[in-house]
Amino acid sequence: MNESRICFSEKEQPRLAARRTSLHRNILHRRFETLVFCMIFFIAFGAEMRSATMGADTLSTSELKKISLEDLMNIEVTSVSKSPEKLSETPSAIQVITADEIRRSGASSIPEALRLATNLDVAQKNSHDWAISARGFNTDLSNKLLVMIDGRTVYSPLYSGVFWDAQDYELQDIDRIEVISGPGGTLWGANAVNGVINIITKSAKETQGWFVSAGGGSELQDFADVRYGGILAPNVFFRAYGKYFNRGDEVAANGDDTSDSWKKGQGGFRIDAASSPNNNITLQGDYYSGTENQETGGNGKVSGGNVLSRWTHTISSESDIKVQLYYDHTYLLSPKPAAKPLPAGNLTDGLDTYDVDFQHRFPLGGINRIIWGFGYRRTHDVVGNSPTVVFTPSVLNQNLYNGFLQDELTLQEDLFFTLGSKIEHNDYTGYEYEPNARLQWNFLDQHTLWTAVSRAVRTPSRIDHDFSSPTGLPAPYSYLYDAGTNFISETVIAYEAGYRFQIGSEASVSLSAFYNDYKNVRSLTPTPTTPILPIPLIFNNNLEGFTKGFELNANVQALDWWLLRGGYDLLIERIHVKSGSSDFTNGLNETADPQQQFSIHSSMDLLHNIELDLIPRWVDELHVNNGPTPGIVASYFELNLQLGWRPGKRFEISLVGENLLHPRHPEYGYPGLGREEIVRSGYGQISYSL
Q1: Structural domains of the chain sorted by starting position, each given as residue range(s) with its CATH number in brackets
Q2: pLDDT for residue 649
């Protein structure tokens, strides 16, 4: 008997592909609807059973009470001055995302948790990539935000930005995330231009015992986390963790799947030892590996590992010495599509970073608080070039030296003046200076006025100096893009003022205004001597301009069981070409930011140990210029929801819905049929701790 086969014509293939996509979407939507129904049923009727099954192990509403406003304003932050200080008295535009806020938001990744900081612009590009910035310049090559995890800098020297798909941690073990909008170069150095994100994890002593969590849903299809903490010896605590997740595809503007699914695993450890009452040692490390399907075809890969050690010697409550060392290895593989006549190929990058940092703080003369330090970083970068993306040289070693000094002077009991500067030396531009002056007036109890003037720099990255994009065409059209040999640092002079106050235990408000003056911003200069086409486009420093605006953040304890957090940002950007210079995009390619945005986080503690969190957000339209003409991402209003139930001290069951107001919407990208859109999604989760 002949083997029978079913064949389809070419005309039928698109129809069948669309049908398969529609079927896949329907399956995911049914899965989401089933999760919603099951969770509501379980919470509604499970509460009636808990007294019979849990007995004395149940929790009262008071035991579930979240952090109070007074506790929040008394949280000690360290990112502004590298010294512990109360949030309520910090002379900076800083917000703190607490561990409880992360848990209650339903965030499953660090970028999702960062949406809780209303002074950040967070836009999801696809299943595994985000654009995140503060106070503007949130483009594909966003490079003016410094991000740290426990003091380890995670930006890439390829483009001075952050690969957010490579940054992860066990969210349950994050103590807080401190988010500063505004320059932080005096203490933190280059690339802390528009802001600083400092992710601080809990000590091993705070994470003893077991924690296990698992779940799944429509886009976050399945995930699992496990962590165990114990005691190695008297005053020596440890924890180890592992996690895995699998995220599904987003969709294109035409409704088709974009084949950008993502899966990743990560594990790590931390040891905290108190060798004496005045000496503490931390040793921690992580390893991760993941694969990412690309919309343009092929599978991308990310992997890496790090190990960090820190010694803290406490001299007094106002004086200590810290020494930190870390090694970090990252690897990425990014498939690049063919660009005729050049074939497709893979771009790879392997980066090794060695870093040592010393700091010392102490009081002087009764009215001075001094902090100073120095550091050294060495990077070894190995690039495997693709046919269309080339870095020359492919192997590069770089050295970065820095030193800083800052003094906080007490002018009178409630008036403080801070002056300091950092000096850095890099291999591209030599010495860079980043001074800062700051005045703080605590004119009433729980009322703080502050103002500051700062200079910060964005030093050149490899894409500015070493990058080229071959076309495969004969000269003079051999390259589409080419690095500028004379590229210098971008600079900003930032003027800020702010007012933070608290109204008893019912409300707290923070308002900050800013004006940033930018010089030598990156441009794409056409080659004027080539006929017909003005290529290659050369990276240069032909742009300048300003941004201005204000950020409003408030926390209100509406009722004993209802806490509201919210914020509104206004950003006005005016970047233009320098007189007598040129730019291929007329100064529009370095910015893609909403002029306005606001969000609210409503946290409610309901009866029967049920928590309900609603997070609506509105984002103004974006003007994107990575196409032949400026494009627009429409404004959107969205809602995230987390419904949780704690039937006992050790269990938590939750249902999370994301982007619930629309089946899908774009948050970033140039308009077109292939632009990715973020879909409505949801997942269920069960957690157990012991």
Answers
A1: 91-689 (2.40.170.20)
A2: 85
